[in-house]
Amino acid sequence: MYVYILGGFLGSGKTSLLMRLASMYSERKQKVAIVVNESGEIGVDGATLKAQGYDAIELPSGCICCTLSGTLTTALQNIKNDLDPDIIMIEPTGLALPNKVKDIVHISCIDEDADYIIGIADIQRFNDLIKKKEEFFTRQMTGSDFILINKCDLATPGQLETATDWLAKRFPDKTIMPVSVKEGTNLDKVYGMMR
Amino acid sequence: MSDSHEDHEHEKSSIEEAGGVAVGVTGTFENFNSDAEARLADALMKVGRYVQGESGCLLGHIKAAVYTEDGKGITLNLIDMDNGVEHHGTMAPTEHVKFNFMCAVLDVDEHELQHIMIDAVEESGIEYQLDPTSMHHHHHHHGPNGEVIEDDDDDDHECHCHDDHDGDDKHHEHHHDNDHECHCKACEDRRKEEAAEKEKQDKPSFWQKHFGKKKE
Fold it and tell me: Which A positions 166-195 lie with beta carbon below 8 A of chain B?
């Protein structure tokens, strides 16, 4: 069993990516369990996933990297015991720190074969985010096994290069790849990098 | 990462660290159709404009899910003001649907944001009912349609959100503990009034002078 944590800021396209990847796994007859976390009491992602035909476990009213860490542990143990999926995909809130979620997965004793963090950055809001929350965004991307720059179809000339340089400078050992979840650009490569 | 963050005794949540807020309301819509969907999209845009005005840019998302009892439905998603509201899924006209309306953004006042969201739904013209349990602050003084309940004595907290604030210089001290500008209807109205009054200051009429004094 492999665990994937999709980390990235609010609005970066985590839910869309999750749905695309879950479809790709399902098409290959892999059993996928989805865990969705939203900061507020009122969630929308769970409803979205259900509306699109995905069965997701929702963990609302807090953040699984901190206030709901215990809830995540229990949820993962239940998933392991009840569903025993091939893949668990976890979508934390856009304000979570994915490396802390990974720590919680480790201590949940679910005997996973491996766990990975997929970092997602939004090219359209990259500059605004760096301007306002550089430190937080950097911490979000820390621990990512690879970083995707999403919405590359909407990038203006030079934007992708600037963002890639910025990320490569801070995370020289990571694979950084532009993708468009909406258009499917490079998603086959992402799938190829995953187990 | 600061050492204090790692110290569980004083650990901040990641939301606090990011300076983010996440609020939402749930409820039901009656007679939901494509016109209502467009109106709901306008409501999301209204909230987006507020966030942009407060925070400088919209960093985060404003989302709404509208669905039937069996979970099928549509999602409206606003993450970029220039791109507008994304619509996912389709829904045939439905008499009775549920909705979740949430907003997770940075650098705005949580309480005020919820006001703006409720106002946006109210002003959309969609026939709606709010689920009182989904409203943290508001449940004590708003009815299921967002209307103000004057004689609500659920608790001892006196809310002034919908006062006209005349003569009340400290009207928001209970929920605006920073420099955020309040955009609730009463404050907006007051600001408009003050701006109009300022314009006429050169040649004030007796009535305007009198009215101005009364407001002080």
Answer: none
Q: Domains plus CATH for chain B?
A: 19-140 (3.30.300)
Could you report the per-residue pLDDT of B78-101, keeping only the tens digit for each? 999 999 999 988 999 999 999 999
Measured distance CA(B129)–CA(B214) in Å, rounded: 38
Domains annotated for chain A, with CATH where assigned, are 2-186 (3.40.50.300)
What does the pLDDT look like over A120-140, one tens digit per residue?
999 999 999 999 999 999 999
* Interchain contact, B15 vs A93, CB within 8 Å: yes
Contacts of A146 (CB under 8 A, 6+ apart): A118, A119, A174, A175, A176, A177, A190, A193
Nearest-10 crossing angle of helices B110-124, B34-55 = 150
Mean pLDDT of B6-30: 79
Contact between chains at A10 and B102 (C-beta distance less than 8 A): no
What pLDDT band is residue A109 in, cutting at 50, 70 and 90?
Answer: confident
